[in-house]
Structures are given as C-alpha cells and as structure tokens.
C-alpha cells in the first residue's frame, strides 16, 4: 500500500505529462505546417520568427516532460533503475532546458521590441540579422551548458545500503543525485539565480517598458494628427472668408 501523498503526486505528474505532451506535439505539428509552407502563405517575417521561437520552446518543454516517467518510476520504486548515463541525461535536461526556456522567452521579447520600436531597421530586415540570430542562439546554448556544467559533472549514482537488525544487507537503494562540493554550491546557486531569474526579469521589464512607451507615443501622434488637420482646415476657411469679404 502506497502513501496517499505518493499516489497524489504520481497522479498530478501523470496529468501534467499527458496534457503537456499532447499540447506540445499539437503546437509542433501546427507550427511545422506554418513554417514549412513558405510559398502558399504571406506571413510576415516577424511572425515566422516568433513561430520559430515558439517551436523551439515547445521542443525544450517536451524534453523536460519526457523526463516525468523516469521521475515517476524513481519515486514509485524508491530507487533509480535507469543507470548512470540516464542519470546524467536527466540532470542535463532538467537544468539546461529550463535555462533554454528562459533564453527563448528573452529572445521573443527582444523580437517584439524590434518589431514595434524598430520595424524598418535594415539590420533586422537584412540577411545579416538571420546570421546574427543563429550565432547568438548557438552562443546561448554553449553558455548555458557551461553554466550547468558543475551540476552535470557531479551528477551520478549514489548507493545506499539498508541493513537488517542483524547487520546483514536488506536492500541496496540507488539514488540519482548531484552533490556539489560545499565550496562550489553557494556560487552555483548565486549565479544560477542571477542568470536564470534576475537578469531575464530585468531585460523583459526594460523591453516591455520601451514597447509600451513606443505604443503610447504612436497612439498620441495618431490622435494628434486629425486635430492638427482640423485646425489647419479652419484657418484656411477663415483665410478664404476674409479674402472674399475684402473683395
């Protein structure tokens, strides 16, 4: 008989896994049709880029979701049955993909900023922008792997022996852990918090503040144009009237 909390946790994990996998696969299939249909649609360049970001974000999320069955089996059996390599893969995906999701969201925010604040930028429209995007994406991935390298390096299998009252071995339990050394753990937590939370929040706030400011400026300019036009028309009519009366 399993504890109630374990049953509830596995039930929640199962629902998240099914809904998440189905939803992300649907998004991937839909975006694949959009991105592959170059000749039949007249989608804007910005829309295709945003679709590409969402496509990449779905792939990243799907990899994280595929770790749920392994995690569920781990909790269900109380031991890690998948071996050393799978443990390394588990910790790699759990940490790298979370930072990748944040990086993709920042890229989407920057794309919106460029689309709203600099829509006619030659740098954005030219081929150089695509090359730069590719270079930045590869650099981001390598940088994230570098940030997560300590926890990936120290990930491994830890064996715990459970003894009987007569000190004979009752069971060997395997745990998939990543035990960072004490001298490294505070620095790892600090820079992961800064890079994974503080910096993204600051960048998103800055970009969306500039976007809102730009939209307000555009709205005020659009609203002022009809008023200026009416003022000019009234002045012209007064001028014509004065000319006619003087004549």
UniProtKB/TrEMBL annotation:
UniProt similarity note: Belongs to the G-protein coupled receptor 1 family.
Annotated Gene3D superfamilies: Rhodopsin 7-helix transmembrane proteins
Annotated membrane-spanning segments are: 6-34, 54-76, 96-114, 135-155, 188-211
Ranges where the G-protein coupled receptors family 1 profile domain occurs: 23-247
Taxonomy, top ranks, is: Eukaryota, Metazoa, Ecdysozoa, Nematoda, Chromadorea
Q: What name does the UniProt record give this protein?
A: G-protein coupled receptors family 1 profile domain-containing protein
Q: Which SUPFAM superfamilies match?
A: Family A G protein-coupled receptor-like (SSF81321)
Q: Which UniProt keywords apply?
A: Cell membrane, G-protein coupled receptor, Membrane, Receptor, Transducer, Transmembrane, Transmembrane helix
Q: Where does this protein chiefly localize?
A: membrane
């Amino acid at each position: 008989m399993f504890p109630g909390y374990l049953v509830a946790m596995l039930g929640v994990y199962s629902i998240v896994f099914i809904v998440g996998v189905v939803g992300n696969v649907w998004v991937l299939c839909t975006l694949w049709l959009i991105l592959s249909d170059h000749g039949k649609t007249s989608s804007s360049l910005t829309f295709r880029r945003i679709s590409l970001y969402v496509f990449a974000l779905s792939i990243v999320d799907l990899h994280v979701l595929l770790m749920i069955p392994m995690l569920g089996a781990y909790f269900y059996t109380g031991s890690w049955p998948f071996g050393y390599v799978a443990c390394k893969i588990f910790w790699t995906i759990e940490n790298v993909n979370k930072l990748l999701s944040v990086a993709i969201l920042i890229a989407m925010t920057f794309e919106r900023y460029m689309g709203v604040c600099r829509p006619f930028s030659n740098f954005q429209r030219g081929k150089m922008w695509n090359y730069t995007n590719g270079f930045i994406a590869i650099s981001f991935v390598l940088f994230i792997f570098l940030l997560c390298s300590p926890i990936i390096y120290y990930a491994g299998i830890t064996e715990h022996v459970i003894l009987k009252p007569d000190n004979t071995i009752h069971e060997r339990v395997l745990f998939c852990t990543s035990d960072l050394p004490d001298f490294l753990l505070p620095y790892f937590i600090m820079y992961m918090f800064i890079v994974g939370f503080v910096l993204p929040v600051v960048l998103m706030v800055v970009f969306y503040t500039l976007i809102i400011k730009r939209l307000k400026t555009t709205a005020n300019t659009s609203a002022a144009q009809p008023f200026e036009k009416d003022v000019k028309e009234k002045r012209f009519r007064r001028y014509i009237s004065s000319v006619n009366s003087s004549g």
